[in-house]
Amino acid sequence: MTTPDQEQQQEQRRVDTVVKQIKARAKETDRLVAKAHHDTDIIQKNYGDNNSVNTFEVDDRIETNAELQQQKQMVERAVESEAILNRQVGVLKDLSNSPYFGRIDIQDDPADDPERLYIGTASFVDEHQNFLVYDWRAPISSVYYNGTLGKVAYQAPAGEQTTELLKKRQFQIDHGQINNMFDTNETVGDEILQSVLGEQNDAYMQNIVATIQKEQNDIIRDTYSDLLVVQGVAGSGKTSAILQRIAFLLYHSRASLEADQMVLFSPNRLFSHYISEVLPSLGERNMRQVTLAEFLSARFQGLTVQSLFERYESDQQAPATSAAIRDFQEGAAFMAQVDAYCHQLPADKLRFTNIVFNGDVFFTRAEITAIATSLPTAMQPADRFLAIKNTLIKRLKHRIDHEAQADWVNEQIDQLSDEAYHDLLGDKRRGAFQSLDDEVFYIGKQIVTKRLRQVYDAIYNGYFLDTYEQYNDFLAQVDCPAAVTETDWNARIKAFRAGIEYHRIDLIDCAPLLLLRDILTGSGQNRRMQYLFVDEMQDYSLAQLLYIKHAFPLAKFTLLGDSEQALFKGIEQPKQLLERLRDAFQVRRANLITLNKSYRSTLQITNFAKALLPDGDQIQAFTREGALPKVMIRYDEDSALQGLLTEVHQQLEHTHTVAVLTRNMADSKKVYQFLKHHTVATLMADSDRTMPQGVIVLPIYLAKGLEFDAVIAYDISAQNYPDANSVGLLYTIASRAMHHLTLLSVGDVSPLIVHLDPTLFTIEHQVRV
Ligand SMILES: Nc1ncnc2c1ncn2[C@@H]1O[C@H](COP(=O)(O)OP(=O)(O)OP(=O)(O)O)[C@@H](O)[C@H]1O
Questions:
Q1: Residue whose C-alpha is closest to residue 473's, from 655, 634, 625, 351
Q2: pLDDT per residue as tens digits for the range 726-762
Q3: What ipTM, to 2 d.p.?
Q4: Which of 8, 277, 294, 507 has a beta carbon 3.0–4.6 Å from 204's, enabling a disulfide?
Q5: From ligand 1's centre to the CA of 747, what distance in Å?
Q6: How many other CB atoms are there within 10 angstroms of residue 258's CB atom?
Q7: How far out from the chain centre does Cα 271 lie?
Q8: Closest C-alpha to 720, from 745, 696, 741
Q9: To which H or E segment does residue 125 belong?
Q10: What is the distance of C-alpha 10 from the center of its chain?
Q11: Number of H helices, E strands in the chain
């Protein structure tokens, strides 16, 4: 019988041998990188030399072009193989520091000898093809995350397999030394998780590969669902799970999936930065990332799109749109009305515009309408639009042919330099035409085509349909529910028109307008994207989600959120939300996974945060001890700001970052104006992509998805958080804190806190004199 010490020594000896082999491989790979780099240099230099050869002689040029193409591909291939080798170097470096974090002993059949498998961030195979380390994403590795000891099943390419799990061991290895080692019967035992959570820093999100929990593993390894919805409480690892899931999918479908075929809709730019290191730390490339505002702005070139934050800020003064209108216009039924409208729209009701060139009408609106009305009425809108485009392009070509013989063109041809003439010939050869006239005609067409490029582009891009007018027509005939009065609706239409006049569009109109445009013009769909992830989905309207679904029709969707953290609307029950989504998305394979355990915060902070919620009981805190949250009460703004400063200084003594979170930007500015005179502080803005250390001040919506060592909520007064509508806000603020939470009130504290069990926090009153 070996003692634990002897066990650890044995394990350390194995680590030593494995690390030695990894280092040897790393050295070899370094050599290959140097060689590859040298090769790339030579090819690149060659390419550069050839690229600058005199290509004036036409015959030479054609050959050179083909050769250059070939060389360009060689350069690309060389750069790619160098990049692959470089990634391998990175992976080996990480492995040599910590080759694995888990071990499982399994026995497929009682007659067999047990097998001992070690699991790490990547596979490592020795020269005899022995797996010294298994990638955490390999099918067998799921046993480590999923199974308790005994009979266990796992998914392999050939179908479900079973085995007997005899032992599960966890390691913490750093610089090749085992610091911690535990045998556990649980999924992934608490000891290691405790120590991982205790040491976190907040500049970048960390990968959780060594401590993935069972439910998180279900999210990560789901390859079945077309729609996977994750409802997870604050800090339950939703974002962590998506990133691990992306890494898993890249491994699982490596033959058919590229990182850029996955897109993550993230809540803000700071968040994009915060999570940017996770995938590289797992040896993978990052997926694409976009915020909703960026996505919409890219689709509305020339218009300023209202962001969710702008709307939230302006709502604080006076909501521009009634709740009834929002419910209606942001729901699935409204999108269905858009769809129905587009599909039954007769050709003569399409809002065409003239195509204008150099101030003159090139194709009239009437001509375009006539083309449209001559088409079969049963045509689908997109087919109809394409047919119109094709007819217009045919007519444009006809006019080009005609114009090619005009005097001005002939004059221009006469004045062409030799080089310009060759350029216009393109890949045609001089003298290859039947006659000189043919050649001149060809050159003439090239000149006119170039000149009329703008008209071609207008046709190609469908600019001859005024989608804003069309949407306006749509709004005017909408079937409103009883809750929306005619006067309100007319005011809404007016607001839309006024916005367009000033090149602005409200968020509420974006999704329906884009859907209308896409259906009528058959554009806007991206069929390359295979997976789409939406984090903080509770901040999206159903109309927006449906539009995103329309825009990425072949993508599988993973939607993650926490209905309790709704900042911009009331809290919705997850079941309700799921039903709405399932109906609206009309997918065959939908799956809901719920995460109820919160890992981010100390027990005391989680208990406080969950008490704010009407149904917070379901939230389980992870037992990591810390101080009770502190409520500070001051009776005027000056003393509140002084109190804030003292608190900031105290927190800075033991943490790197103190986040002062406010309800809105106006409060953040006020706090910042004060703090900046007394300490180094940074005010964060919507456009910021990186977060400094020290004291940062930001409104809660910019802190979505982030976490901080210490959080100070500024002004949690009754005035700021008067009723149940503010629960989501307050809960989101409280749940950003990992270790320390302070809540400062100017005047009476919000009733949401007053009603809490007083043992959940401490109070520090200002002494009134
Ligand atoms: N299995 C795990 N092992 C170690 N750390 C974990 C695990 N799961 C979550 N965490 C940690 O808990 C914190 C919260 O995780 P994450 O940000 O992914 O949660 P979330 O559900 O997206 O939170 P929120 O909705 O509040 O933004 C992070 O610091 C993360 O590293």
A1: 351
A2: 898 999 999 999 999 999 999 999 999 999 999 999 9
A3: 0.98
A4: 277
A5: 34
A6: 13
A7: 9
A8: 745
A9: strand 124-125
A10: 44
A11: 28, 26
